[in-house]
Every structure is written in C-alpha cells, then in structure tokens.
Write a structure and sequence with these properties.
The strands form 3 sheets. The protein has a 6-stranded mixed β-sheet with strand order 8-5-3-4-9-10, sandwiched between helices. It has a two-stranded antiparallel ribbon with strand order 1-2. A two-stranded antiparallel ribbon has the order 6-7. The longest helix has 17 residues. Helices cover 42% and strands 18% of the residues. With 249 residues, the protein is α/β, with parallel strands linked by helices. The protein contains 9 helices and 10 strands. It has a single domain, classed as ANL, N-terminal domain (Rossmann fold, 3-Layer(aba) Sandwich), CATH 3.40.50.
C-alpha cells in the first residue's frame, strides 16, 4: 500500500481478536489472577505468582530503560528455557524493544550473522548450554558485531546490575513507554532454520503473537488454574507464543 498502512483481513468470528499490547494483556491477567501461580521452573526451584512475575518483569523493564534502550531497539536472547527467559520476553514487550530469539544451538558464525542482521544492541544469554561456553563464544564474536553494545549473562554480576538499575529509573518512564505502544508495533523477530540459505528473520507484532497464543489455548479449552507443561524450546513460536503467551492470556 502506497501510504504504508498495514493491510489486514478479518473473517467472521464469534470471538473478537485481542486488540491490545502484551503488557496490557498481562496487566489484565494479573489484576484478576494475581495470587495464582504463573510460572514453575522445577529445574531452578522457581515458583512465582502472577503478581510476583509482573513485579519482576517491571523491574527488568526499568533496568532496560536504564541501559538506554529505546522503542524499536533490538535485544537478543540466547538461552535454553529458564525463568529469566520469560522475564526478558515480557520486559522487552513492556517498553517496545524488539526481542530477537536466538537458537541455543547456534555456533559462533550463526550467532554473528543473527546479531548483525537484526541489529542487536544488547544480548541476554545464559552462561552456557550443554558443552557450549556462551561467555567465551560471545567474547569471540563481539569484535565482528560492531552494533552490539553489551552482553548480559543470567546470574552473573552484570545481570544483577541491570535489575538493580531499576532503582535509578522513575516509574513514570515505564508508564509512558507502555502508553506509547500499540498492538501493531513490532515486538519480536524469529528466525527460520536456514535450511536453504541464511536464516530469515520474521518480524511479528503484539497483535500477531498475542492472538496466536490466545486462540490456541482457547481452542484447547484451557482455563484459569490449569497447568501447561512447556518442554519445547522458548526460542521459537511453539514455546514462546503458544506456550508462554497462551498461558498468560
């Protein structure tokens, strides 16, 4: 379309599409089910209610603002499934930062390509995965990734610094960021497998992935209080969207 407007096609439905951001949707869920368990990570000994989860998400969102991240900036996430993965997922959505999902099995050349092609300014990562030393691998690729300003590793001092940085950012800034976002804003980049060439990054909006997760769980007739086991990787659509977002919608 010449004016740059989004093209949308909606068929008849008895259930309306969600017309809100991920942050607004989470806030509604927290208001109604704040004392319910939101996430249980058995391998980490983590159990958070929705209220506790939302507090941690807000703290990290403030920390991201403290890093100087602006709406539309890209943040990479390179990690197997941990509770911290979900915090980064929802915190970036709160402030309009685009989350770039990175396959935990990437080798250094694949990581370099994805970071540069997407334009990541900050990378969040686990320290390691199986036999891969992520800290060492990131040190190897940083000279070839000029746009990458900072790498933050879960449970290391730099992770604690980002979260603690929330104390130096006014809550009004987070409120303003939330209010400036819309359902059609880009919020996530997911890469194809790269079977026939370099992986291709698909840019997704709040509306895209929120409704995907919502309607999958609606069709499965999941309701409040039910528990959804998510053994699949968070880094792709099944885990992050149909799993995580499906549970919180």
């Amino acid at each position: 379309m010449s004016d740059g407007a989004l093209a949308q096609d909606r068929g008849p439905t008895d259930v309306a599409l969600l017309d809100e951001t991920i942050g607004a949707n989470l806030a509604r869920t927290v208001a109604e089910f704040g004392d319910n368990e939101a996430i249980v990570a058995r391998h980490q000994g983590v159990r958070w209610t929705y209220a506790e989860f939302a507090d941690r998400v807000s703290a990290l969102a403030l920390g991201l603002i403290g890093l100087g991240l602006e709406r539309g900036d890209r943040v990479g996430l390179w990690s197997p499934n941990y509770a911290e993965w979900t915090l980064v997922q929802y915190a970036t959505a709160e402030i309009g930062v685009i989350l770039v999902n990175l396959n935990p099995s990437y080798r250094t050349h694949e990581l370099t390509y994805a970071l540069n092609q997407s334009g990541c300014k900050v990378l969040f990562a686990a320290p390691s995965f199986k036999t891969s030393d992520y800290i060492d691998m990131v040190e190897q690729v940083q000279p070839d990734c000029p746009g990458l300003e900072r790498a933050v590793f879960f449970w290391e001092d730099d992770w604690d610094e980002v979260v603690a940085g929330s104390a130096h950012v006014d809550n009004d800034q987070l409120t303003a960021r939330r209010g400036a976002l819309g359902p059609d804003d880009p919020i996530n980049i997911q890469y194809t497998s790269g079977t026939t060439g370099y992986p291709k990054g698909a840019t997704l909006s709040h509306r895209n992935i929120l409704n995907n997760g919502y309607f999958v769980t609606e069709l499965q007739r999941f309701g409040p209080g039910e528990r959804l086991c998510i053994p699949v990787p968070f880094y792709h659509c099944f885990g992050m969207v149909m799993g995580n977002l499906g549970a919180t919608t």
